[in-house]
Amino acid sequence: MSWWKDKPFRMVQNNLRDIDGAMDVDYEVEMLKRLGANVVQVGCGGISAFGPSKLACQRPTPYLEGDKFGEIVEKCHAAGIRVIARFDISKVHQDYLKTNPEWFTRRADGSPAYFEDCAAVCVNGDYQQKYILDVLREALTRYPLDGIFFNIPGYPVTDYNGNYVGICQCENCKRRFYEWSGGMTLPTKEDDTDPVFRKYEEFKVYTVADMLHKVRSLIKSVNPDIPLSTYSDDGIDIIRCEAQSAVVPKSFWLYSGSEDPAAIITTFPDKVPSDCAINAVDIPYRFMGVSTWLNQIRLYQSAAVGGNLDWCIVGAFEDYPDRANFEGVREAFHLHARHEELFARLQSKARILIANPRPFYQFSTNTMYNEREYRGIVHMLKERHLAFDTVIYSAIENLADKLDNYDVVILPDLPRAPSPKLRKALLETSATVVGTAHTFREDPELLEQLFGIRISRPVEPVAASYLLTQPKEVFHSFPLRDWVFLYQDAYRIELTDAEGYLPLVAAAPYGPPERAYGHVVTDDRMAAVKDGKNLYLPWMVGTLYYSLGYEDHKDIFFDLLDKVRPVKQPFATDAPACVEMFFHQTGPSEYLLQMINLSGFNGVTFSEPLPLDNIHLTIEGQHPRMLELLTRDGFEAQTIQGDVLTLKCPGCYVGYRITCG
């Protein structure tokens, strides 16, 4: 029985500290029941064991009272709560450096990567290759586990303080990479232009997957109904990701609670996502939670795409100093529990597919991707309420034979040449293919075949240059604005078999004002359309929107998309851009519309969202006959007048079941 696939679950993760070896388990279980969790993920072994381990390769916490993990399992099971055992296999106590120095990650100078009284261990050392199997075997035979979670498997290049550790230079890495690569020397620096470093990127993915498959084989030999979970996909049942914040100044990603689980569902339909809403404001500040509104947004976003609810604190509940988010978690968990059968039936109606360029392997150091380009285009789609699916680009071959299911496939700033299978699928699909920024720069032949262009040279200088929004019948969003500024990387293109749009207005002096003239409209075009179908923008339209937020760049993108492929959407609405909308089919003539109210976000702070009324919605080709509001007690019938539904979103989240006939 694959319990994790049967229906969505609601999980709390308690990342136990050593001192929690003396925790009050009864209080813990009562809190889990109050919140509405039916799964808990809790510390079992690795850095510290929370039971009386007899193994020489791990140490019980010095604060341990009895078998604390065994007590947690027994009492949680009695309360109907499943237990996933958490193992941190990334570090061990520094004393093992004296007895097993070959286990450890090494910096370029040969020194270990310390943090507190621990040191990082390497994927290719015997601790992760052999001894972790002993740790698991002991736990699997001692406890009736419901799941296994591994924290930080892989090759992190920074420590908890953000200090750079670099590429591991241990003898195991050197030997194994040399053998695996056919004689290459392990690189010492991250350089994406170096073919050896690119090979090393593949090596890292391979070695982590190889280790995880060993772990999986052991687990399934004991009990095939125990899932393995971590931040990877190969050999994994529950794919973990995180919605988190940081105090380091950076642009805030508003859709983190929905985007990762949605991408996992699309890319890996045989697995389930668990997107952990991290309560802490940052790793150094683990005992203060984020805004109550942000916390709820993340949980509802995960539920809205059919993901599992997952929430994390550090330590036990009994002395956790910030209880402000407990009630919000309880509200989300209880609503989800009441309607879990409905959330389990969500079927996408999207006609747009966008590739997320982030390598899914969490600790990849691949620098040749620009997530801001992807995020900017996602932001555009969200604000226009255009339904879309997301595929993780490193695994896009999973959908290569399904591209015809979409009207539009968007490839945001993906410079590397695609695999032969993907290349063939892109050339043969009936979908409109959209490329932006550097997409396929390393494959000039494909650029010409797919988009009818050649890249010539950068636009230099880019500052003080513009895009001419002509002809107006294409750029209908610009009746009064002829020039839109250009910024970031941009490239001149040669049109070999494409029609050009957006003339480049070359840079001219911009100051002093007396000298600010002399701009020339060039023959260069900053958009290309091949065969009236495929679209290429050799500049960073998504990055500009994500970073600077000018509507003009979004309007240019959609004006061009309307030109080549107007997308037939499953619904139409006049909802404001601050509403994140989700529309899924849940059965024959039955749909679930969900709205998350983001009006309380001002770009920095989350506050209580403004109540939104008189949101109108129509469903393409359907006649609604029943409208029901999701409540914690069930469904509440709403009034219908004609085919135009009038909806409201008074708080953070609202869900409507719509039955048509």
Kindly report the average pLDDT value.
95
Main sheet attributes: strand count, strand direction, barrel closure: 9 strands, mixed
- CATH homologous superfamily label of the largest domain: Class I glutamine amidotransferase (GATase) domain
Report the CATH architecture of the largest domain. Answer: 3-Layer(aba) Sandwich
Number of domains: 4
DSSP helix count? 16
Radius of gyration: 26 Å
Strand line-up of the largest beta sheet: 16-15-17-18-25-24-23-20-21
Count all strands and give the number: 33
Kindly report how far apart the N and C termini lie. Answer: 36 Å
Low-confidence stretches: none
Structural class comes to: alpha/beta
CATH class of the largest domain, please? Alpha Beta
Strand content: 25-35%
Share of helix, binned: 25-40%
Q: What spatial form do the alpha-carbon principal axes imply?
A: globular
CATH topology of the largest domain: Rossmann fold
What does this structure look like?
By secondary structure, the protein is of the alpha/beta class. It folds into 4 domains: 1-88 and 237-344, TIM Barrel (Alpha-Beta Barrel), CATH 3.20.20; 91-122 and 154-228, no CATH class; 350-564, Class I glutamine amidotransferase (GATase) domain (Rossmann fold), CATH 3.40.50; 571-660, Sandwich (Immunoglobulin-like), CATH 2.60.40. The strands form 7 sheets. Strands 16-15-17-18-25-24-23-20-21 form a 9-stranded mixed beta sheet. A hairpin with a 2-residue loop joins strand 11 and strand 12. Helix 9 runs parallel beside helix 10. The two termini are 36 Å apart. The mean pLDDT is 95.
